[in-house]
Write a structure and sequence with these properties.
With 344 residues, the chain is of the alpha/beta class. It has eleven helices and twelve strands. The chain is globular.
Length: 344
Amino acid sequence: MKELYLNEADGRKPKKLTDLKLKNPERLYRDFTQRIQSLLSIDKGEFLGFAQNATTNLLYIVLPILKKKKNYKIYMSAHEIKWYKKLFDAGRLPIENTTFPNYVKQSPISFVKKRVTLFDPEAFVKNPRKVLSTLEPAIIILSHVSRMTGEIFATQKLYKQIKSINKNNIIVIDGAQAIGALSCRPSRLSDVYIGVTSKFIGAEPHIGFCWVNRVLVKEYAFKEWNIEPKKFFREIYSTLEVLKKRRSWKRTIKEVRTSFDKKLQHYSIPHLKVKNQVPYIALIPIQKRLLAKKLQGLKKKGIIISSNTKWSIKEPRVPALRVSLTPVLSNKEIEYFSKTVSEI
């Protein structure tokens, strides 16, 4: 069997377009922008910025706010990618860690050091009032879907609750594990919504994008930031190509997940049940001491997959193989994966 890629939640893919040359990257960039607007269900006139990665977008948003209003506190989910916290700890973009195309020189950008208060997102979504203060405005950074468990955190109800605690609170949602797999309407969930073109969009990494609501745009005079199409044309082209292919999908993700769960049961492979989990992320618990060996064994069999460990601010309570499911996954591939996991 050819290489089986079940790693969309991680998003790192081997670059296949390194020799690609295009005559008109600017035109492709316009098409690309329109497709991202469509994915986000936003109008043409709404703010949409593009940067070298998600962390750069976060920096561009937060820095003007903190410069103008120093009393803002920073609250961050412990499930977030490590680089977000490092941004505030170091007071600069952690370019030695963040992802960006290998052929583009990543731009170092200064920031400001700021104390970050971490919170458990599972507890936070149940009662944000236990975490946030009514007296101090806050910037809250939370994933739409947890990269660690696949649980959906961002909801319209939560957004309204956070605003009711303090109307000046700013909610920044990281949609990296949602865009491309879930229907997303940023204005119902957040003040700022960040995403990337890899992961569940499925393109070669990496372009970060950022939507900002009209109120913040006006208050802080945000101007759209953009990438240079000539430097990122491979990612632009890759994004357009994978989005075109979606039209030929014949199965839904729910159908794939049903087949996947049945095969796990057939081979007596346990999977972690998570409340409000998206159907396209599945977790197979593995003892931490055996996790690396399991991943390496699967790689030798041509199965590319990652775990839910190492990349988040805090480690998961239950280490697991993190399986990314897509509608193009066939029953034959599901059978191969399940049988291989049971044998390693």
